[in-house]
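Morning F.,

Quick status update on the modeling queue. The single chain you submitted on Monday has been processed. Sequence for confirmation:
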Amino acid sequence: MLNITQLTAKEKTMQKNFSVAFIIVLLILFNSDSNASTAEQEYHQANKQFAKGNYSQAVHIYQSLLADPFCGISPSVLYTRIADSYFNLGDYRNALYAYRRALIGQRESEKPATQYWIGFSMLMLGKRVDAVNEFLKIPALYPESGMWISTAYYWAGRACEQMGQRELAAEYFGKAGGSGRSTQERFALEKAKEAKGK
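Structure tokens below.
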């Protein structure tokens, strides 16, 4: 009679292979948890550097996290932080690039703010026509984005004003002004009157 506890050589090999595979899986899981924990610590360190105004150091850390495919932090979050750092450094070209990369993986609710900073980066680079086009994407692409719409119209108006396009500036200021209930809306409506020459 065959004893159940006795294993054939093939079954022993299979059991050994299964044990080795199980240990490898555990090591991979442990390593990825350890890596994610380290990445989170580095991310918090980068945020601390950013909060202290050490934007160059923050960019360096954010970029190193971006290069690590196992860090567990969304690339769109990292690109946004990189862009914010560059913007604060006055490096609007790199900020613009990073904001555009951030848009790729963002949730819809985050995109209007990023689109605004793309427009503002263009404005800071002196590319006023491009800035207007970028600002106007907000009401076109994100019509439910609330205050970002009036903010976009206001800055589109400012860019037009800087280019001497007073009628267009008045139109955008008027749209930013809406009903004129808030202080910001009343200010935008005053800018619209000013631009019309009234």
